[in-house]
Specification:
Layout lengths: L4 E5 L3 H13 L3 E5 L2 H10 L3 E7 L7 H11 L5 E5 L4 H10 L3 E4 L4 H12 L1
Parallel strand pairs: 1-2, 1-3, 3-4, 4-5
Helix pairs in contact: 2-3
């Protein structure tokens, strides 16, 4: 069986590296986007992507806007928000933008893998 492909939209190198290590240890293939524009393009051009993990605060296009755009052509793709800034209004905005789940940074590695596994079922 091939490894499930996860797109990680994260502009911060250290945050990305941490997530990449966790995902590779859990046998996922990882692709990176550093902003919302890249995230949209990569989703559009890589149908093998199973899950999108997206930061909310990124340069150019943020995670809310990229999620709304991706939902127009991939309505069923699981999208998990990762944010250090998520409060109840942010959670509501994430849900209304079309996010499937949200996790608060710093992300617990067990919770991250459990959340991904849950949305893939």
């Amino acid at each position: 069986m091939t490894e499930p492909v996860i797109l990680v939209a994260e502009d911060d190198d250290s945050n990305y590296k941490y997530i990449e290590i966790i995902l590779k240890k859990a046998s996922y293939k990882v692709i990176r986007a550093t902003n919302g524009f890249e995230s949209v393009d990569i989703c559009r051009n890589n149908p093998e992507i199973c899950v999108l993990l997206t930061d909310l605060k990124m340069p150019g296009m943020d995670g809310f806007e990229s999620t709304r755009l991706i939902r127009t052509f991939l309505p069923d793709l699981p999208i998990i928000v990762l944010s250090a800034y998520l409060n109840s209004s942010g959670e509501n905005e994430a849900k209304s933008a079309g996010c499937t789940e949200y996790l608060v940074k710093p992300v617990n590695k067990i919770k991250l893998v459990e959340t991904i596994n849950a949305v893939l079922k």
